[in-house]
Amino acid sequence: AQSVTQPDIHITVSEGASLELRCNYSYGATPYLFWYVQSPGQGLQLLLKYFSGDTLVQGIKGFEAEFKRSQSSFNLRKPSVHWSDAAEYFCAVGAYGNKLVFGAGTILRVKS
Amino acid sequence: DAGVIQSPRHEVTEMGQEVTLRCKPISGHNSLFWYRQTMMRGLELLIYFNNNVPIDDSGMPEDRFSAKMPNASFSTLKIQPSEPRDSAVYFCASSLDVGAGNTIYFGEGSWLTVV
Question: Are B47 and B67 in contact (CB under 8 A)?
């Protein structure tokens, strides 16, 4: 069965610093991978997705993610974090029938 | 274009009462999903529909939960009777089709508190 692991429950970074959020997946076939962001009291917004092709994917708000098949990873990165990036980030793998399986989420705190 | 629309946004109800959550998917989307988010269990898929037909309801916790999609632009999730452990955020989401590569768009959620 497919699963997603986000090893970090909380991460705190300084504004302007770089960010990397980790995601590891387990899936038997070619994975469809997603990163969503959830601001407090809001729904989930898609940041980026990987289906095939170039393993470095660009998303909205300056985020990017790199798919590494050998490591079963899809880590999210941003070169310079802004205070408005504080939110919870979810990695997900698309399974049969478009059933997304989500990780537990990583809460990002940004300190000024 | 309007996104996925959910109502009510917030509901507080007493244990034993019936709760109905409503969802309007994005126009033209054929697949609709109901997710539940709690602190303990994270985001869980409850049920999903394709072309108004329930495809997989294995995530529905028990018989107190039911979901319907009478037409392409409307779905309901009903809890009867409600219990305090049903308190959660319920998200409706939609996608163009059921293929694994289709992007799923989420509504802003219905925040349910059962007291």
Answer: yes
* Shortest alpha-carbon distance between residue A88 and chain B (Å): 12
Which amino acid does the sequence have at A34?
A: F
Residue type, A70: S
CA distance B88 to B93: 16
Nearest to A43 among B48, B95, B107 (CB): B107
Q: CB–CB of A98 and B109 under 8 A?
A: no
pLDDT tens-place string over residues B57-87? 999 988 999 999 999 999 999 999 999 999 9
Tokens at A78, concatenated: 């941003």
Beta bridge partners of A72: none
- Does any CB of chain A come closer than 8 Å to the CB of residue B96? no
Going by C-alpha positions, the residue among A47, A53, A29 that lies closest to residue A85 is A47
C-beta atoms of A94 and B101 within 8 A: yes
